[in-house]
């Protein structure tokens, strides 16, 4: 192949194409048909049968979709009703337990505090004496420190970053900081 045209370049040709160009075409290399495939010609009866089959499938699919939507809706509604029923059952159980607590049929083993529409209840174990004596009083918050500037009695609002001294205003904070830097 001495022809240098790009359409006959031996490197890019397949074995079949090279054989055709060299006229050494072996009979063991089969050639596929090159003309486009022709559609099978259907008779009018076959076409009508095919159309009716497609229509029947579409109808069947739409019926299945409608049934599935119907079942989904039913399940969704049943789940909502079940949760509502469960909450109603729990309300009834709570009211029965409330009646039981009011008659003291159950002895509490720990403090039990209930707040509902009827009011507040506190159940106390039998071994606890009432009134309850606490060993320590309540912890009130510590008093707010006063301003560090001498002669000022106002409560603190600011704290110096470097000095950690308290001040009631920005002016006093600057004074506290300048006094601290002069001492260093």
Automatic annotation (TrEMBL):
Cellular component annotations (GO), alphabetically ordered: Ino80 complex
GO BP of this protein: chromatin remodeling
Annotated InterPro entries: INO80B/Ies2, INO80B_C
Domain INO80 complex subunit B-like conserved region: start-end pairs: 46-128
Domain of life: Eukaryota
Compositional bias (Basic residues): 78-87
Stretches the record annotates as Disordered: 78-108
Name of the protein in question: PAPA-1-like conserved region-domain-containing protein
Source lineage: Eukaryota, Fungi, Fungi incertae sedis, Mucoromycota, Glomeromycotina
């Amino acid at each position: 192949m001495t022809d240098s045209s790009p359409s006959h370049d031996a490197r890019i040709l397949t074995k079949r194409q090279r054989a055709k160009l060299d006229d050494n075409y072996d009979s063991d290399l089969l050639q596929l048909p090159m003309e486009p495939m022709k559609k099978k010609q259907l008779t009018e009866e076959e076409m009508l049968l095919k159309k009716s089959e497609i229509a029947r499938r579409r109808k069947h699919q739409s019926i299945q979709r409608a049934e599935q939507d119907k079942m989904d809706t039913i399940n969704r509604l049943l789940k909502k009703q079940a949760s509502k029923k469960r909450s109603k059952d729990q309300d009834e159980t709570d009211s029965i337990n409330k009646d039981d607590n009011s008659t003291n049929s159950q002895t509490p083993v720990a403090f039990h505090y209930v707040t509902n529409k009827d009011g507040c209840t506190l159940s106390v174990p039998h071994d606890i004496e009432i009134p309850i004596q606490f060993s320590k009083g309540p912890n009130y918050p510590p008093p707010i420190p006063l301003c560090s500037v001498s002669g000022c009695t106002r409560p603190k609002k600011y704290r110096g970053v470097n000095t950690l001294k308290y001040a009631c205003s920005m002016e006093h904070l600057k004074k506290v900081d300048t006094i601290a830097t002069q001492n260093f």
